[in-house]
Amino acid sequence: MISHLVYMEGKKDESLEEIPTSVKVVPFRQMEASGREYLEANCSPPKSDDLAILMYTSGSTGIPKGVMITHKNLITSVKGFNDVLSPPSFQFRERDTYIAYLPAAHVLELATECFLTYLGIRVGFSTPQTLTDFSTAVKKGEKGDLKVLKPTLMVAVPVSHFNIQHIF
């Protein structure tokens, strides 16, 4: 049962009046303000050596292991992208779109998304099962995410690059 409903404010929506009184209805701006107040009162910025994320990898032995990624590790990755992909070697454009299809738990995907989000680049999410017209989760006659999103940016591991190069 729904207990809370957060909505985007705009012109008055009469359908809000039909929501049962047992459901707490909150405008998005109010939720943002509440979150900001909570952060200011209860949270301090992380230190560079604080844990940012715990990623699991099969590693070279095939036995999964947790890898501690600190804020410094993550920021260093973003800086590395910035150093390599800065003008004049590369120029991002306002119309660029990145297609994110690697698992979110893949460190290359995480670092790429952090970097491109920092730049304000659009990110479209996909999966290997929906990437191409012939992917396993795409119905016959339907378009895969590459054709729908028409990305201008993509990060790929070698096996994926080999599998999709015929599309371009």
UniProtKB/TrEMBL annotation:
GO MF annotations in UniProt: ATP binding; palmitoyl-CoA ligase activity
Catalytic reaction equation(s): a long-chain fatty acid + ATP + CoA = a long-chain fatty acyl-CoA + AMP + diphosphate
GO terms classed as biological process: long-chain fatty-acyl-CoA metabolic process; neuron differentiation
Domain AMP-dependent synthetase/ligase: 32-158
Keyword Nucleotidyltransferase: no
Gene3D superfamilies: N-terminal domain of ligase-like (3.40.50.12780)
EC number: 6.2.1.3
Protein known as: long-chain-fatty-acid--CoA ligase
Record-level GO cellular component terms: endoplasmic reticulum; lipid droplet; plasma membrane
Alphabetically ordered keywords of this record: ATP-binding, Fatty acid metabolism, Ligase, Lipid metabolism, Nucleotide-binding
Protein source organism: Trichonephila clavipes (Golden silk orbweaver)
Family the UniProt entry places it in: Belongs to the ATP-dependent AMP-binding enzyme family.
PANTHER family assigned to the protein according to its UniProt record, in alphabetical order: ACYL-COA SYNTHETASE LONG-CHAIN, ISOFORM J, LONG-CHAIN-FATTY-ACID--COA LIGASE
Matches recorded under PROSITE patterns: AMP_BINDING
